[in-house]
Design a protein that fits this description.
It is built from 17 helices and 14 strands. It has 449 residues and is an alpha/beta fold. β10 and β11 form a beta hairpin. α12 crosses α13.
Length: 449
Amino acid sequence: MAFYRQIQKALETWKQSQSHKPLVIRGARQVGKTTVIKEFGKSFDTFLMLNLERPVDKAIFDSTLDPKGIFQRICLEKRIRPNGKILLFLDEIQNSPQAVSMLRYFYEDLPDIYVISAGSLLEIMMDVHKVSFPVGRIEYLFLYPMTFREFLKAMGEDAILELLDEMPLPDWCLSRIYKLFREYAMVGGMPEAVSQYIKERSIVDCAPIYRNLYMSYVDDVAKYAKNISQEQVLRTFIESAPLETGKRIAFEKFANTNYKSREAGDALRMLERAMLVYLRYPTTATQFPLQPDLKRRPRLQFLDTGLINYKADIQSIYLSDTPLDCMFNGMIAEQIVAQELLASNSYELKKPLFWVRETGNANAELDFVQTIQGTIIPIEVKSGKTGTLRSLHSFIDITNYRYAIRLYGGTIKIEPSQTPVGTPYYLIDLPWFLADRIPQYFDWAIRKN
């Protein structure tokens, strides 16, 4: 089943560009890269696709032909006479270092042909084979698991999507949207799982999909392990990482293992290059630029909440009355917000920052900090009734910034507030599912005040 993905807007922009450099779509396995490009290919007069996992397709790039000769051979073997606007799609390009190296020459020798490549484990492959994408001659787009809006579109909730664009969102529809958001958090954004859920409306029927996804990730990454020892570390960490999501981690003895810092760090960084996990480092800055502090312990973010729920065996909790921000020690709400923030940008891999102050007894830790309209905005993911804002208040006291955002399970409002020591600020309260609309609501709050 082909779903609408927001990356399609970026693809259309690329198609209309006068200088359409070869495009590399990056993302973890099974997030929908191939399906998206196949759908996009329907807008071209000629669509040519090679799957470089197949030996017969990969062999085309093992030859000594130049780009024009390779293109002619592709057309002959696919029995296609090209005409009009032509899109050449090189899928699973990580299997052919020669194809990666050839991308620059397609741009130089065949500028009229649109070229897209996609694959998982690209950075790992390049490290192993000592190849690199040609700098300045290609463009990148990133694809992540489906966002809440993409999930709503797949579910046929077009009316809800229209409401989400209203500013502000009316209170009367919040109950319905929270229910859908809870379903999204339960199922996650892996397209195959979403497709199965739409058919049966049963999370139980999605279990084989989650299980197979984990197996494919283990098998994929293991192929690039340097030795048996590293393969074992990788297998262990793929199983353990979902249960460590949201935590600040140390590489040494990660997930209660006995692995040393170096081998654990190497394994986690390999999983990050495969885009299965993200190591979100904190910033200690309160002014520009907001630089991550790589000397401090990062927070671990896993690929997708649906996979986390399956691995943690907490899917049944979604069918109870347990609030979303109480699940998995509050980590699910933060994970889903982090997913939404990460997926809001198709043009770069921009991991959401969090803020820390670690000075003796005056420690503080903010869930997120984001730059909006030249302003640094502190963001907390908290419960509507019992969540404290101690770290947010610490940040406000230090900076005297006028606005802060709380993402929670309540209504939309702007409250004149002050910290315990009397520093005034405006608190913008937003539902979790509006994380992708933070810039718009920040602008709305400024105009209101």
